[in-house]
Amino acid sequence: MKPLRTLLAPLALVLLAVPAWAEKIPLKDLSAYLNSLTTVETQFTQVNADGSIATGKLIIKRPGRVRFEYAPPDKSLVLASSGNVAIFDAKSNQAPEQYPLKRTPLNLILAANVNLGSAKTVVAHTEAKNATQVVAQDPQHPEYGQIALVFTSNPTTLRQWVITDDLGQQTTVILGDLKTGGNYSGSLFNITDEIERRGR
User: Fold this and answer.
1) Among 184, 5, 171, which residue's Cα sits nearest to residue 85?
2) pLDDT tens, 66-86?
3) Is 197 exposed, middle or buried (0-12, 13-18, 19+ CB in 10 A)?
4) I need a surface site. Which of 69, 82, 120, 193 has the fewest CB within 10 A?
5) What is the pLDDT of residue 22?
6) Is the previous residue joined to 155 through a cis bond, with omega within 30 degrees of 0?
7) 77 with 67: CB under 8 angstroms?
8) 77 CB neighbour count, 10 Å cutoff
């Protein structure tokens, strides 16, 4: 199982050429869209810094909770809740690696109130290949890394993110169709419960 920096940290999103008159989506609209995503379920493809590829199911319950279920043969699990991220390696008998969520760029989209317009949060806001890309970081701790979010418009939809960690390594998560508005139990994201269930 890859460490957090490769697990949660690009593969370019391949899209059709954009007309010259296309415009990037404003930051306020992107913030409003992200804040509207209280729950999301989707299939994902992850491309790690070493070129390896994994797939699985992703569930997000904002604020602050996420569940990455990796498909066989991996069967590993990543949970975020209560301000922490835990990586459960299916091949290990050891306790999961844990990190503060605030030290990962993913925290920027899991926050209770996403405000991409706040000072020094967004370091790039561009439009290319029929998509809007926003590169964001924690303005208080840029050393934690960056997250590049890729959106398409009409309607605004999050398509992928690319995380660059504190060592400069990049990991891409490409999202499938987003199912929103679901009802998910908090136990799906509970790190302590998962540790007890696995006996670690």
Assistant:
1) 5
2) 999 999 888 799 999 999 999
3) exposed
4) 120
5) 57
6) yes
7) yes
8) 19
